[in-house]
Amino acid sequence: MKVILKVELLTALLLVCLLGANADTITLSSGAGASGSHADGGLEYLGYSALSLPLSAPTTPFSKSTSNTAYAIAAGSWSTAIAGTSWVSNAPAAGTGCSGSQCDANGFYYYQTVFSAVGGHYDGSVSVMADDTAEVILDEGTPEQSILVQFGIVGSDGHCADGMPNCTAVDTVFFPNLSLLAGTNTLTIIDAQTGLHGAGVDFEANFNATPEPSSLLLLGTGLLGLAFAIFRKRKASRAFLGIV
User: How confident is the model at residue 104, as a pLDDT?
Assistant: First the structure.
């Protein structure tokens, strides 16, 4: 009985150590809104480039913004922001209440946040709303680049306007096995504005590290070896004492 208890305790200890080594939970969002940096996962407005149709990831360079600030704006006639987040835009006067020259020109508007990760495999999700539609890219410009959310059809997609300027639904995409770099990662949101109105985005992302299959195999092999060693030691002790 004592031997079994020892094995169970050691098993629990090894599991805790393994899970602890892989515990990395990352939450990003447009949060409190206004941000002139990438601090705390806040979105930074990077700049603008000309619109190209049909919509696809822009290949032309964008014009770097002089302020680099993403401003918190009211939802207006857009859907209410995701809980704990805020709609953000490239200008404080932008949004659904704009008029005339305050409205955003058609084009691609770039936002980005930078975050740190232990690295490896993660389960996660990205939720996004945008006017008119948005593409979400992980580690843009690197060999590991992944498009997490693609541009939708303007006027009929879950993460864009549905009858401009109304954004009516949150588009959530789930990832069962996403790779994050060890160290610095970037999440870029490209908002495509097509209706000469107010541009804006709202997003939330969650990533949770998952144990490597090789680590689980190593743990299982180690536990079997440990159990066998304890069994042999117990059998040898009983033989030495003359216990059948």
Answer: 82
Element (H, E) at 193: strand 183-193
Asked if the model's pLDDT at residue 95 lies above 60, the reply is yes
- Nearest of 34, 27, 101 to residue 68 by alpha carbon: 34
Distance CA 205, CA 197 (A): 26
Three-state secondary structure string covering 93-153 = CCCCCCCHHHCCCCEEEEEEEEEEECCEEEEEEEEEEEECEEEEEECCCCCCCEEEECCCC
List helix spans (H) across the chain.
Answer: 2-22, 213-240
Which of 143, 142, 165, 170 has the alpha carbon at shortest distance from 155? 165
Residue 182 to residue 117: CA distance in whole angstroms: 6
Say if CB 160 and CB 152 are below 8 A apart: yes
Name the token pair of 73.
């704006």
Torsional sign, CA 56, 158, 185, 113: positive
Domains of the chain in sequence order: 24-209 (2.60.120)
- Answer yes or no: is pLDDT of 180 > 90: yes
Q: Report the candidate in 104, 95, 115, 101 with the shortest Cα–Cα distance to residue 33.
A: 95
Between the alpha carbon of residue 12 and those of residues 18, 133, 219, the distances in Å are: 10, 47, 11
Judge contact between 202 and 86, C-beta under 8 A: yes
Please tell me the distance from the alpha carbon of residue 20 to that of residue 167, in angstroms, as a whole number: 40
What tokens were used for 123?
């389960």
